[in-house]
């Protein structure tokens, strides 16, 4: 029986003019901006990294829907998990984005593909709340436990608690909101940087959660049904070790993460993860300059394919 947590298919966007986004740099300390002279080289490397990642995922048995972005005004388009999510029962959500230039990432052709290839019952569009200053950047802002129906969310200007409550009502999740910061005290911009919930394990940057009582509560919730809860250090979070996603490959569960993230894990952590999922590292150093990693690149599809029984 497949897990509701681990999708078998993903949407990816291959950028032709990739660049770290100046509009998001203010609150994304994971980001680094290249010099102007590097722009063409950076774009070419990013294109290659996405191509290679898509090939590796397909080789692992994943269905990969790869879309091209030839525009120059959507520097973060490689991170589609922020603008839409999919849910069992045929539900799709579209999200309001904080940075103005990220709003153009929403693509009708992606949604039309979902409707054509999968059983889509409805699309709930929250994006009209952008003029009201309400933002909820998809499965970047929320880490969803599809098994226990919990939506974990770190407070930030990219995560409206009002809209989170609305989402949870519509999609039957319980919101768990907390404050999280890096070692300098700067709030962490997206929850999926510090937490990954898989079927039988979870990765969490517990030290990032400021309040000790809230930290203990979240760790208890994550481990309540027997999940192996693996703590990540602040240093490992900075290397994107929390920005991973469990996928259902042809030979069972895989944990997709970056090669940089894998290198940051110690031997015991790798061994504990490998009890539950095979490690699938992807080389994406250029993409990571934009302040996101593998989890951000993959919009998991929790929909039933058309023609499935």
From TrEMBL:
- Give the InterPro entries listed for this entry: Amdntrnsf_FN0238 (IPR014541)
NCBIfam families from the entry?
citrull_CtlX
Name the record gives this protein? Amidinotransferase
């Amino acid at each position: 029986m497949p897990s509701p947590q681990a999708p078998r298919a993903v949407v990816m966007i291959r950028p032709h003019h990739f660049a770290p986004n100046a509009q998001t740099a203010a609150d994304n300390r994971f980001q680094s901006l290249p010099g102007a002279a590097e722009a063409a080289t950076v774009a070419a490397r990013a294109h290659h990294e996405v191509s290679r990642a898509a090939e590796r995922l397909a080789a692992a048995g994943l269905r990969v829907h790869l879309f091209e972005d030839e525009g120059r005004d959507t520097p973060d388009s490689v991170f589609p998990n922020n603008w839409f999510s999919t849910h069992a029962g045929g539900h799709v959500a579209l999200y309001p984005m904080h940075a103005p230039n990220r709003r153009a990432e929403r693509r009708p052709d992606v949604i039309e593909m979902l409707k054509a290839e999968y059983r889509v019952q409805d699309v709930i569009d929250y994006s009209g709340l952008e003029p009201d200053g309400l933002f909820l950047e998809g499965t970047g802002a929320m880490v969803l436990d599809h098994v226990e129906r919990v939506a974990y969310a770190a407070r930030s200007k990219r995560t409206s608690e009002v809209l989170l409550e609305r989402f949870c009502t519509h999609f039957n999740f319980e919101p768990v909101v907390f404050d999280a910061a890096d070692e300098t005290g700067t709030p962490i911009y997206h929850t999926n940087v510090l937490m990954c919930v898989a079927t039988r394990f979870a990765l969490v940057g517990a030290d990032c959660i400021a309040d000790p009582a809230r930290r203990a509560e979240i760790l208890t919730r994550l481990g309540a049904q027997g999940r192996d809860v693996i703590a990540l250090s602040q240093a490992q979070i900075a290397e994107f070790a929390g920005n991973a996603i469990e996928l259902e490959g042809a030979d069972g569960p895989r944990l997709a993460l970056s090669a940089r993230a894998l290198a940051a894990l110690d031997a015991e952590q790798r061994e504990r993860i490998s009890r539950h999922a095979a490690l699938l590292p992807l080389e994406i150093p250029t993409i990571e300059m934009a302040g996101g990693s593998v989890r951000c690149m993959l919009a998991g599809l929790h929909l039933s394919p058309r023609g499935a029984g």
